């Protein structure tokens, strides 16, 4: 038996053995891990689980984040990105304006556009289709990972089309994958308290289910660190795990550490480093059917990202170029990172950097 991880605590030792036997962790196991302060055991166990799945490889992508509009009909309590139409700083870019922006900021090697934005009801669904079409025509070699499940639900409402029809329209003009945003915490009670007036829990899951049925591989997230309980977080993971059992369409799970600027969201301070690392490690342990857990350096910083690579994370995200949503909410991290810095960061953790495409095909291994 591998004796790398040992704990004096009986319940912890049972969890260690369960993971080793490849048995699934339960809601009670997950909550116990969150309540434990034994970060080293949890981190080491997650590291073991990750090494079994991915070896020493840590993935990243050369990508660029784009935001067509920040006008939004919703008022999620934690959001500092949204604006009302006509408010100072509100914008809605045409395809041409976006291409102008991309031309100014793109760097060689970008192979993915990550596209999200507000739910702007002042433009029709066709606007969102045309946005994708314009980018796809100009940059056919760049993969378009666009829109959250909440945006797809919004498009369905303004167009009268079903989720399937909305997705098919977008796929016709170049959509290749959905982003993971809009999940927040998958709890109706949480959504009510945080005024998440967009896709509810079942709608979020249904959009991803539909996308997977259409052959799209998608991302999924969890925005943690405000009013939710540890139990809420584990239940969130279990709902994702159940859907993954059904469709196998999620490529990666991304824990997003809540940024603190908005007092109305009930956030008193940033998540501690301890909480961030524990969440990454617990995600790795609970989500045994998702290949990758991503450490999102925009929200937890590059140094903690590096440490998390030895506690369960196998994806260090990408270059991004200029992030806006978390920075509007008070992120203190860089808005992007160079390929060289990402490689340095991954190698510094004793791991092998692998540049990937959107679908985790390996482009280059930096041994
Ligand atoms: S989180 Fe998204 S849906 Fe909610 S207010 Fe912000 S932009 Fe709108």
UniProtKB/TrEMBL annotation:
Pathway: Quinol/quinone metabolism; menaquinone biosynthesis
GO biological process: menaquinone biosynthetic process
Domain called Radical SAM core: residue spans: 58-288
Broad EC category: transferase
Keyword entries, A-Z: 4Fe-4S, Iron, Iron-sulfur, Menaquinone biosynthesis, Metal-binding, S-adenosyl-L-methionine, Transferase
Keyword 4Fe-4S: yes
Binding site for S-adenosyl-L-methionine: 78, 184, 195
Cofactors required: [4Fe-4S] cluster
This enzyme's EC code(s): 2.5.1.120
Pfam entry (one): Radical_SAM
SUPFAM superfamilies: Radical SAM enzymes
Entry binding sites for [4Fe-4S] cluster: 72, 76, 79
Catalysed reaction equations from the record: 3-[(1-carboxyvinyl)-oxy]benzoate + S-adenosyl-L-methionine + H2O = 6-amino-6-deoxyfutalosine + hydrogencarbonate + L-methionine + H(+)
Protein's UniProt name: Aminodeoxyfutalosine synthase
Species, as recorded: Paenibacillus radicis (ex Gao et al. 2016)
